[in-house]
Amino acid sequence: MISEENIIEVFEILESHLKEKNMIQKFIDEKFTPFQILVATILSARTRDEQSEEISRRLFKKVKMPRDLLKFNKKQLAKEIYPIGFYRTKAKNLIKLAKILVEKYDGRIPEKMEELLKLPGVGRKTANIVLAYAFNKPAIAVDTHVHRIFNRWGFLKTKKPEETEMELRKRLPRKLWGKVNNLLVNFGKNICKPIKPLCDKCPLNSLCPFSKCQK
Question: How confident is the model at residue 209 (pLDDT cuts 50, 70, 90)?
C-alpha cells in the first residue's frame, strides 16, 4: 500500500530507478531564462517531449526575452514552431503573452499563480511548472500522468487533475512537491502507462495495489 507513511520512500525508489530528466529540468540545468521556461512549457502542451525540446531549442537561438518574441508576427512565429501541436494557436498566444509581459511587467515573469493564470495560454499546470522550476517556489504541477498514478496507487481518490493538485498540497510533504512532475511523468511514460502498464518491471510492484490486481 502506498500512503502518507511511505510516500517519501516511494519517491526515493523512483529517483534511484529513473535517471532521465525531462525537457524543463534540462533547460533549468542549462540556465535557460524564466521566460524561456514559460515558452517551452506552453509549447510542450499536447506535444511529444522530443519534438518540444527540438523546437524550443531552435526557437531559443533567437528568443531569450519577451521583446525578442515581438520581432515575429503570428505567421512568422507559427512557421518557426511548426509542426508542434496547435502551432497557430500557440503562436498567437505567445505573441499576446510577450506583449503583456513587456507592457505590464517590464519583461519580467510574474511570480504569483493568479498573475500567471491571466497570461494567454497559461493554465495551472504551466503556472506550477514555472513557479517550481524557474523560481524554486513550492508548487505541484499535475498532468494526466500525475493524476492517474496517484489514483492508481490508491494514495488519492480524485476525479480531475485540479482536484489532485489540491489534495496533494494537503497531504504530500512539501519537500517532494518540486519532484512530482519530473519523476511521475517519466514514470508514467515509461512504466506506469495508461494502458498496459509494465507492472512486472515496476520498482514499486511490491507496494502498489494496482500491480497486485494485475497478477
Answer: very high
